[in-house]
Amino acid sequence: MTQSLDERVRRLEDLLEIQNLQALYARYADRGWVGAQTDSEALANLFTENGVWSSPKVGTFEGRQAIREGLGRGTMPFSLHLLLSPQISVEGDEATGTWRALFALTSPDKTALWGGGGYEVRYRRTAAGWRIRELRTQSAFMTPYGESWAGPG
User: Fold this and answer.
1) Is 153 contained in some domain?
2) How far is 38 from 72, CA to CA, in rounded Å?
3) pLDDT over 90 for what percent of the chain?
4) Considering only CA atoms, which of 116, 105, 104 is closest in space to residue 140?
5) Do 71 and 53 meet the contact criterion of CB atoms below 8 Å apart?
6) Is residue 31 in some structural domain?
7) In terms of residue numbers, what domain contains 81?
8) CATH number at residue 78
9) Residue 151 resides in a domain
10) pLDDT digits (tens, 9 = 90+) for 91-125
11) Does pLDDT of 36 surpass 90?
């Protein structure tokens, strides 16, 4: 079945909105440098009311308040999130996405770290636009960098 021009345009608009949503997530999660826009309130508002953020290393936060508080603690004094290779599938008002991620981090003890992995994400269209319904992190590696942006190792 061939999609109409309106359907194709809407799909492209959905894909762009979801990519922008995920880019805002990375920007609001960054901290400790001039371009970071750390904002736990704005970050939590990217999720649905009952959204879920989950990481095997950090834990699970359910609902905007828990996400705001959990991610707002920010134990890393520096973080830079780079999101790559999005694969997004939209089905009506629901969507799924996978992202590869690379992280430059400074731990609380001032160790510079490189981390990599990805996100598995479920999105939902709301009256306010697309929001994250569930975000699960996947870690592939975390390794010290040595002497770097965090100072001598």
Assistant:
1) no
2) 9
3) 78
4) 116
5) yes
6) yes
7) 5-144
8) 3.10.450.50
9) no
10) 999 999 999 999 999 988 889 999 999 999 999 99
11) no
Counting the structural domains of the chain, the total is 1
Reading across the β-sheet that carries 78-91, which strands appear in turn?
A: 59-62, 47-55, 129-144, 112-126, 94-106, 78-91
Entry pTM: 0.90
Q: How far apart are CA 79 and CA 102, in angstroms?
A: 10
Structure token digits, residue 143: 């390794």
Kind of pairing, strands 78-91 and 112-126? unpaired
Dihedral over Cα of 120, 124, 71, 49: its sign: negative
Which tokens sit at 116?
């990599």
Distance CA 65, CA 149 (A): 32
d(CA 38, CA 40): 7
Measured at the alpha carbon of residue 39, what is the angle toward residues 34 and 40, in degrees to the nearest 5? Answer: 145
End-to-end alpha carbon distance in the chain: 59
Q: Which residues contact 119 (CB under 8 A, 6 or more apart)?
A: 22, 83, 97, 98, 99, 101, 135, 136, 137, 138
Residue among 133, 96, 103, 135 at smallest CA distance from 117: 103
The tokens for 118 are 């990805």
Asked if residue 53 is part of any domain, the answer here is: yes
